[in-house]
Amino acid sequence: MARKSPGSCRRFLMTMFDLTGRVAVVTGGNGGIGLGMARGLAASGASVVVAARNAEKAEAAVAELGAQSTFIALDVADESWKSGLAGSTSSSTTPGPRSASRPRPTPRPNGMPCSTPT
Q: What is the average per-residue pLDDT within 18-35?
């Protein structure tokens, strides 16, 4: 039996995770694991918002990720970021419509999100 090429398997896996029209906010996306995640999300078609403290490293990451990415200065240790993040991302990116087949999460009594049963 002939074995498929690694390239065809990779293309198949990437189409399974098509994020075209979606926005991904990656905290710490300017280096290390965060940058690796940002690369994967961008490769899947997402518009990536790199949220980090170091502007110089973040601008280098945004240049690498491409035109569909942007940078927001953010320190997650400072709690005031929670109120400003949504407004910052919506002005710099345009998320696509939510799929009807993917219901919005509903909060649990303890405040943690969970998917609605289908």
A: 93
Return the domain boundaries, the chain: 13-96
The token duo for 114 is 């969970």
Q: Which of 16, 15, 10, 42 is nearest to 29 (CA)?
A: 42
* Residue with the two structure tokens 């939510």: 98
Crossing angle (nearest 10°) for helices 55-65 and 32-43:
30
Q: Measure CA 57 to chain center.
A: 18
- Looking at residue 50, its pLDDT comes to 95
3-state secondary structure at position 20: coil
Tokens (6 digits) for 14: 């990437």
Contacts of 27 (CB under 8 A, 6+ apart): 34, 51, 52, 74, 76
CATH superfamily of this structure's domain 13-96: NAD(P)-binding Rossmann-like Domain (3.40.50.720)
